[in-house]
Design a protein that fits this description.
Layout: E1 4-12, E2 15-21, H1 32-39, E3 49-57, E4 60-67, E5 72-73, H2 77-89, E6 98-102, E7 105-112, E8 117-122, E9 125-126, E10 129-130, E11 142-148, E12 150-156, H3 165-173, E13 184-188, E14 198-204, E15 209-211, H4 215-227, E16 235-238, E17 244-251, E18 255-264, E19 266-274
Parallel strand pairs: 2-3, 4-6, 12-13, 14-16
Antiparallel strand pairs: 1-2, 1-19, 3-4, 4-5, 6-7, 7-8, 8-18, 9-18, 10-11, 11-12, 13-14, 14-15, 16-17, 17-18
Length: 278
């Protein structure tokens, strides 16, 4: 039997992860079946995804991310926020600034203050593209597709609480117009006043259901709404967990530059589980 392995349960605004120290394990040791088992909320530790953090140089850390269905994903904003705080806590990199490597590229991240806040300087990306023929749902004003690490569909609705998220999210997630691999679907609504954050809910591929927050989806939503002239950046968003994510960015020529995502990367608990067989 394999020896127990240390893990860290973390949450980014309710989007939760099993985090592993890459000095003690490797991504190759984690099969899809094993990932599904440990992410199971009844028979495992329970999580939306699993992350292996591996130091690759001075103040450089690679984040290898898997959805809880065992599939590998190129990027997850909330996992990156959690990775930043945990990498600093484990001494893998300096809290005031590190390079986080992902399957979509490397970018600057840093811890903010003594609490659980972190922020990510995301790579520039192309502006979102509206898909008007997908606006088939009642009251949907805007449907736009953009890629922030992974594909995201942004849907502006009258009230996020009234969305049949599982039905509509699942239908849009696999729509042919969003590409062969599908996309996360982010539903957003106008706040009751200009001083309040925009409420947002996400149907996430790989999880195949609602997650309590999606960092890159919130970035995609912010720039889609800004491109349509519906808000100014920076802007706060109210996630399903009740936590706030903040997005700031500068428009370029068909791109968004100097993109920052700020939010929670909180350690919930640490524990031990049976390590995977080599």
């Amino acid at each position: 039997m394999a020896l127990p392995g240390r893990f860290y349960k973390m949450t980014g605004s309710g989007n939760d992860f099993i985090m592993l120290d890459g000095r003690q394990t490797t991504p190759e040791q984690w099969s899809p079946t094993r990932i599904r088992d440990v992410c199971d909320r009844r028979n495992g530790a329970g999580a939306d995804g699993l992350v292996v953090l591996t130091p690759t140089g001075p103040d450089r850390v690679r984040m290898t991310f898997f959805n809880n269905d065992g599939s590998r994903a190129a990027m997850c904003g909330n996992a990156a926020l959690c990775s930043t705080r945990l990498a600093a806590r484990l001494g893998l990199a300096a809290p005031e600034g590190m390079i986080l490597e992902t399957d979509t590229g490397a970018f600057l991240t840093r811890s903010v203050g003594d609490g659980w806040l972190a922020e990510l300087n995301l790579p520039s990306f192309a502006s979102t593209v509206e898909l008007p023929r997908l606006c088939a749902g009642p009251g949907e004003e805007l449907v736009a597709l953009g890629t922030v690490g992974v594909p995201h569909l942004v849907v502006l609705v009258p009230e996020v609480e009234e969305v049949d998220l599982m039905r509509r999210g699942a239908a849009l997630r696999s729509h042919p117009d969003v590409g062969p691999e599908g996309a996360n679907v982010n539903f957003v609504a106008r706040p009751a006043s200009r001083t309040l954050p925009w409420p947002i809910r996400t149907f996430e591929r790989g999880v195949e259901g609602e997650t309590l927050a999606c960092g890159t989806g919130t970035v995609a939503t912010a720039v889609a709404l800004a491109t349509a002239g519906l808000l100014d950046l920076p802007q706060e968003f109210l996630t399903r967990s009740g936590r706030i994510l903040t997005v700031r960015a500068t428009p370029g020529k068909g791109t968004w530059e100097d993109v920052w995502l700020s939010g929670e990367g909180r350690l919930v608990y640490a524990g031990e589980m049976e390590a995977p067989e080599v």
